Amino acid sequence: MSVSANTGELTNEFVRPQEAPRLVRAARPMVRFFIQKKIGGIAFLIATTILVLGIIGPWIAPYGKDEPFQIANPRYDVSSDDPEEFRQFIGLRLETPSWDHLLGTDDKNRDLLTRMLFGARRSMLLGFGAALIATAFGSVLGVVSGYFGGFVDLVVQRLVDSFIAFPPLLFLLLLQQTGEASLMRTIIALSFLNIFGVSRVVRSATLAVRNDVYVEAGRVIGVQPPRMIFRHVLPNVFAPIIIIFSTTIGGAILAESTLAFLGLAPPGPSWGSMVNDGRQFFASKPILVAVGGGAITLTVLSFNVFGDALRDVLDPRLRGG
Questions:
Q1: Total structural domains in the chain?
Q2: Nearest-angstrom CA–CA distance, 259 and 265
Q3: Does residue 239 lie in a domain region?
Q4: HSE-CB of 237 using CA atoms within 13 angstroms
Q5: Which of 43, 54, 138, 239 could form a cystine bridge with 199, CB 3.0-4.6 A?
């Protein structure tokens, strides 16, 4: 009830509180996340920064990804028989950090900072691509298996057990050896390895909701299984899907770096190949390994910590803690 300003009589109109702007309402969950999970918030900022660098890296890189650098040979002598003195220019090999090359150069006279930025794009592309495909197919497989149960669940889970039991590194090595290595081939291989792990997580969440009241009510009124799965069950298991997606990114990046370290990844700048190229100079130039290895460690750690914090926030059983 409210009082009219003109007559002083009571009216049936309620005074509605002023709603906050839509942008403010949308930002509130993120603010609560940073307040409740400070370490997770820091990990989110680091992961976002690496993602942005992966997107804009080639445009802000100071040099070309395979551009070699040379300097004038101070010992140049055109009449000398010494090959080191006869060359007018020599490669800028294993150069220490300077203003021209902030992280120095590698053993092939290339700028390390440029290689790291190009490697960030490759890692983000492979990580997000493999995680997206694996999460999409694994979620559908897990929901179908958990919702129908019985014989369908038995057959699907035995297939999942069979694929999970196969050593993932051996599978990647075999797949890379059966054809020419390419980015798309690597993405498909990494996503295939993660599909079955995702399906198990989503199946467990589906088993927890398939006997809820709204699912039983939908069955009673004759809702078809496809509509029930995609309109009612899948949205209610979306929280674990988001969490498994964030953690799968780090695993895919680590797997690709392993392939690059072994020399089985597609050609191009990669953090794993930077570690492999610099390990023989680790005693004299540890920065060659530290650049690639540090980028891998920071990226995988940030995505995993962010995924753990997201789980604590979205899982009702852990929200109270």
A1: 1
A2: 5
A3: yes
A4: 33
A5: 138
